């Protein structure tokens, strides 16, 4: 293979991070993005790394949380996504949330400023026979490219449905009813401790909300589509269908919160809203992904105390997410077994979440650059968060039941001598993260 250029298809989290990593290792990159020439129903802009669903990168705790550890590993690798997220951070308790528009605009600007990254707009609809390629086309892979992947792999595309939570204008939230507080007052500053708005419900209000939710008009699926959801992003009405109390033990749980307007009475359920932009003018309803039709959404959500007069900057939606059966198709370098010049990264490989997608982009970019540059790299250590994820999607998972996965400590190899169970969890998680940090730093030293 004489061509030393790396082509990356898709300018989402994974593709953006892959381009950044390969570029900084000295490889020439062509970043192919079909938007805005070819639009999707979920994206609003042509910017790179657009955040379609939530504006949160989840927990930033790198000692007791697997996704926080992944944040740490990406920062150690000079990751574009983490550096930009830190620059556009919003108060969110112990989570890392960002101003989504400013974040994606900054990622776009940084990638465009790199001398050895060229951006080409237009759809790639087939798998190239030669050259160095990373496909990071995400869950909204175009139908034509999806069909090309299916033809090459001989496997049917796997799909699940992912839902988008609504966004509310802050000045339409009734603060005589709602109050500002992060769960368990998490955060180092008062701003962090009051990063969420909370709308309380009595038992009667909760029961009426569940009734309205179950009765609302829902989006119908196209003929032949199967509605199999990723459990980490279930529509609220699907949760309600599993049992009337399910939401009260999920996104509407009242624990760790005290109603500032009525501290003596504990709410039966609480709807939380998280700040969505730096101005504080937009809030998204946490965990409220939905497949309700637009008219039904406005009607049902306005039954929530504090949201009676709410105006919505964006209502929820639902879309099909495409992913590959990666354990049967990819090697441990993220290359397609049948065509070693093609790598895949991001959600199309079966990882779930912004952070996990960007992390797999980071690895794909570095692995592709190392191959182009002739570097002999050891395998990514399985005891790191990066290694646990790549091991899972390239062989650790059971292929017959393969489903999208967030990073979690269940993917990590046990540490000898530590007891299991809930009581030993804090020490066990700290041991996982300490071990991972050492091994990740050692692996990164191969690029020095």
TrEMBL record:
Cell location: Cytoplasm
MnmG N-terminal domain location: 6-374
Any Gene Ontology biological process: tRNA methylation
Reaction equations catalysed: uridine(54) in tRNA + (6R)-5,10-methylene-5,6,7,8-tetrahydrofolate + NADPH + H(+) = 5-methyluridine(54) in tRNA + (6S)-5,6,7,8-tetrahydrofolate + NADP(+); uridine(54) in tRNA + (6R)-5,10-methylene-5,6,7,8-tetrahydrofolate + NADH + H(+) = 5-methyluridine(54) in tRNA + (6S)-5,6,7,8-tetrahydrofolate + NAD(+)
Role of this protein: Catalyzes the folate-dependent formation of 5-methyl-uridine at position 54 (M-5-U54) in all tRNAs.
Native organism: Aliiroseovarius halocynthiae
UniProt keywords, alphabetically: Cytoplasm, FAD, Flavoprotein, Methyltransferase, NAD, NADP, Transferase, tRNA processing
PANTHER family attached to this UniProt entry: GLUCOSE INHIBITED DIVISION PROTEIN A, METHYLENETETRAHYDROFOLATE--TRNA-(URACIL-5-)-METHYLTRANSFERASE TRMFO
GO MF annotation list: flavin adenine dinucleotide binding; tRNA (uracil(54)-C5)-methyltransferase activity, 5,10-methylenetetrahydrofolate-dependent
Subcellular location, principal: cytoplasm
Cofactor requirements of the protein: FAD
HAMAP family from the UniProt entry: TrmFO
Protein name: Methylenetetrahydrofolate--tRNA-(uracil-5-)-methyltransferase TrmFO
Residues involved in FAD binding: 10-15
Pfam families hit by this protein: GIDA
């Amino acid at each position: 293979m004489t061509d030393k250029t790396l082509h990356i298809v898709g300018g989402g989290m994974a593709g953006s991070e892959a381009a950044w990593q390969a570029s900084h290792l000295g490889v020439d990159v062509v970043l192919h993005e079909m938007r805005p020439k070819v639009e999707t129903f979920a994206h609003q802009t042509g910017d790179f790394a657009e955040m379609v669903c939530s504006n949160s990168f989840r927990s930033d705790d790198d000692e007791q949380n697997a996704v926080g550890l992944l944040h740490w590993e990406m920062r150690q690798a000079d990751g574009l996504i983490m550096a930009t997220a830190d620059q556009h951070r919003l108060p969110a308790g112990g989570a890392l949330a960002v101003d989504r528009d400013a974040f994606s605009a900054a990622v776009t600007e940084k990638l465009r400023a790199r001398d050895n990254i060229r951006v080409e707009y237009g759809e790639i609809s087939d798998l190239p026979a030669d050259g160095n390629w990373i496909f990071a086309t995400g869950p909204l892979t175009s139908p034509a490219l999806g069909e090309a992947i299916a033809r090459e792999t001989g496997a049917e595309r796997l799909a699940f449905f992912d839902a988008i939570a609504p966004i509310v204008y802050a000045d339409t939230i009734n603060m005589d009813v709602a109050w500002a507080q992060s769960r368990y007052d998490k955060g180092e500053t008062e701003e962090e401790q009051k990063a969420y708005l909370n709308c309380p419900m009595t038992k009667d209000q909760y029961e009426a909300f569940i009734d309205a939710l179950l009765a609302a008009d829902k989006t119908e699926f196209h003929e032949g589509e199967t509605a199999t959801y990723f459990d980490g992003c279930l529509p609220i009405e699907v949760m309600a269908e599993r049992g009337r109390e399910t939401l009260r033990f999920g996104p509407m749980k009242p624990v760790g919160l005290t109603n500032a307007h009525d501290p003596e009475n504990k709410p039966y359920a609480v709807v939380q809203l998280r700040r969505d932009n730096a101005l504080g003018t937009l809030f998204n309803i946490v965990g409220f992904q939905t497949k309700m039709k637009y008219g039904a959404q406005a009607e049902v959500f306005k039954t929530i105390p504090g949201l009676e007069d709410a105006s919505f900057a964006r209502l929820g939606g639902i879309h099909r997410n495409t992913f590959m059966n990666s354990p049967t198709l990819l090697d441990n370098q993220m290359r397609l077994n049948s065509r070693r010049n093609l790598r895949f990264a991001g959600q199309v490989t079966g990882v779930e979440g912004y952070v996990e997608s960007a992390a797999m982009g980071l690895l794909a970019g570095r692995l592709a650059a190392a191959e182009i540059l002739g570097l002999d790299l050891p395998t990514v250590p399985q005891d790191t968060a990066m290694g646990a994820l790549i091991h899972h999607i390239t062989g650790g998972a059971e292929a017959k039941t393969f489903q999208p996965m967030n990073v979690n400590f269940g993917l990590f190899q046990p540490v000898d001598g530590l007891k299991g169970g809930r009581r030993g969890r804090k020490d066990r998680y700290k041991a996982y993260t300490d071990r991972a940090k050492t091994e990740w730093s050692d692996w990164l030293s191969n690029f020095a």
